[in-house]
Amino acid sequence: METRLNKFLTEANYCSRRQADRLIAEGQVLVNGRPAILGQKVTSADKVEARGELISARKPRQQHAYLAFYKPAGVICTTDPDAKDNIIDAVNYPQRIYPIGRLDVKSEGLIFLTNDGSIVNDILKAENKIEKEYWVEVSSPIEKDFLTHLAKGVYIDGRKTLPAQVQKQGKKAFTITIVEGKNRQIRKMCEILGYFVTKLVRIRIGNITLGRLKPGKYKSIDPATIGI
């Protein structure tokens, strides 16, 4: 029976389908010794390798893990084991897991990790509907107009960001809740308005909060409570 290669890798608990497509596009997946192509199908008779590792058709089903991790600043959201300060080494979980989404290297806070490829797809599909709340500290005292502009939206690369919920928390601190996830979005919004971010912490995704979780630590969560 033929199976799409990205699904094959997901069912083998190797990575999510999106990550599989990226690995295939980068030439890091071989089928019978030849570089795989996007959309390719395989059977149990094919020899599939990813990053030099032979992938079994179906590994023994391991218990699904759903983690909320406090990513420290400096940790990189990559599963590449050769990358310094990669998130997998930082979590040090006994099963193979991978992050859902990302935080830039300078930012810290809440990020989900799992070995359940199906929930990854569900969360990423709903990414622009799930609220993400951040604690932000900036280099200059905050003025009212700055918060007003953030709430209404800022033009980044010719596109205006969606309305946000913003609340001042101190002389140089505020919280912002967005439903987008553009690369370095909050940092760019602040920079355009003349402010430099000195600290950025994601404190909530959907219904899951950072709570008392410490940097570098994780807790198990029920994916049904995220609110997708």
From TrEMBL:
* Enzyme Commission number(s): 5.4.99.-
Can you give the residue ranges of the RNA-binding S4 domain?
Answer: 3-64
Q: Which UniProt keywords apply?
A: Isomerase, RNA-binding
PROSITE patterns in UniProt: PSI_RSU, S4
> Coiled-coil stretches, from where to where?
none
Class of enzymatic activity (EC top level)? isomerase
Q: Which NCBIfam families match?
A: pseudouridine synthase
Query: Protein name, please?
Result: Pseudouridine synthase
What organism does the record attribute this protein to? Candidatus Kerfeldbacteria bacterium RIFCSPHIGHO2_12_FULL_48_17
